[in-house]
What does this fold into?
Amino acid sequence: MIRICHIATSDIALRFLTFNQLRHFKSEGYEVTVVCSPGNWTSDIEKAGIKVKTIPMARSITPLKDVVSFWKLYKFINKEKFDIVHTYTPKAGLLGSWAAKFAGVPIIIHSNLGLYFHEHSSRLRKLVFGWVERLSVLSADIIFSVDREDIEIARQKHIGKPDAWRYLGGWVDLERFNPDKFSSTFKNKKKKELRIDEYKKVIGIAARLVAEKGYLELFDAFKKVLEKHPNTTLLVIGPEENKKDAVNPSVAKKYDIQNYVKFLGVRTDMPELYSVMDVFTLPSHREGIGISILEASAMGLPSVSTNVRGCREAVDDGKTGILVPHKNSEKLAEALLWVLEHPEEAKQMGKAGRAKVEREFDEKLVFERLDREYKRLIEEKLKK
It folds into this structure.
């Protein structure tokens, strides 16, 4: 049996981003183990029959802690003798792939979920994270990317071997995220559960509570939306963070929107929550592919997002949603208002969004790409 280990800094990433991939590998006969920092979601992963090893890993650059994490990763990987180590995000890639390299793991794979710098980043950020990205993938046999633009940028910046990059794409479970499963009666019941009046319009966002996701611009835009449509609610779904740009829910008071916003935290009922929304938004400054956009599109929702790498691959501007300049609350407000005020056009955008996801982002396509590369590497490196 081929033994694989997937490494991510947080349990949330494994539970909410790659969970179905992990279950797929298990169903294909692999012995699957994951490594992540301790968290509240490891039990969900274990219930799926996947082994979990917790090793603290800081998401930011912390040299002393990173050395300790690297040593613990190396000892664990060396002891378990995995055939494949698959890492996610730069920090897990940096620590996990090098630990795997020193432990003599035959196959090392990295998934790039979005480069940590973008066209609007400062020169310093581009320089620092450019080197972090290079070091993270230096030992990888294959580097998967969730969007095509990142592959081109990586090749231009000499991040990884040019021929190591593979397009993976975003992924959605189309059976779970299916608008046909939710009737009008169910939607009204769900609204009541959320304490939202039936007649109110709902704007939704699902993202970590950090400024990088565009929350401050959204709150400013939402204030403008309320001036014309006071019967509107903003649903905010996502975990609070300890990062420097963390957004505390109390900041809503600064924009005088606190009575119109509901902070729901991390949720496992995302299809139900999408079903009560009229429009989805993700005004992110930087994104990999915007999985939440794809989920919302699969649920037949029009999306308003920023014209940045990743988001513009998830949204066809004017067809499945609207793209606006990043950090521009005026344009964001205009786009949200347009969608709310043009329900028929918004409905058509939602239908086109569902069709786009079916065509390009069905998770089964991602499983096929993963399987193809895994089997090729196994033939080349383990069956000589």
Summary: DSSP finds 15 helices and 13 strands in the chain. The domain at 3-171+362-381 is CATH 3.40.50.2000 (Rossmann fold). The chain has two domains: 3-171+362-381, 179-360. The chain has a mean pLDDT of 93.
